[in-house]
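Lecture notes, continued. The same structure-token format from the folding unit now serves as the input rather than the output. Read the line below as a description of shape only.
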């Protein structure tokens, strides 16, 4: 009974499932997918930096001592994420990115 309600709610919110011939129109190439999705990790790290610094402004004097070490850790994270994407692109060069 719960499954039927869930499926009905899902169809109401999301819509009918696509048919096989409709799916081809919705897919994107691997190259476009990599270009669109690879920035996700970098943007998450950049957003985290902003949020941490906003939190530090609330504790201004206390937080000043931790600003530089945390900023350095964030720079290291950005470097690691960008390096991992470069490695993934090198490994999966013909696949267009991560598969």
């Amino acid at each position: 009974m719960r499954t039927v309600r869930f499926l009905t709610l899902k169809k109401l919110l999301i819509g009918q499932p696509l048919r096989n011939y409709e799916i081809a129109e919705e897919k994107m190439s691997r190259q476009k997918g990599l270009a669109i999705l690879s920035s996700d990790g970098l943007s998450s790290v950049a957003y985290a930096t902003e949020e941490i610094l906003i939190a530090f402004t609330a504790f201004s004097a206390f937080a000043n001592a931790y600003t530089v070490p945390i900023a350095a850790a964030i720079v290291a994270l950005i470097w690691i994420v960008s390096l991992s994407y470069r490695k993934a692109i090198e490994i999966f060069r013909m696949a267009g990115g991560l598969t």
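Point for the exam: The helical segments are 2-14, 20-26, 30-37, 39-58, 60-91.
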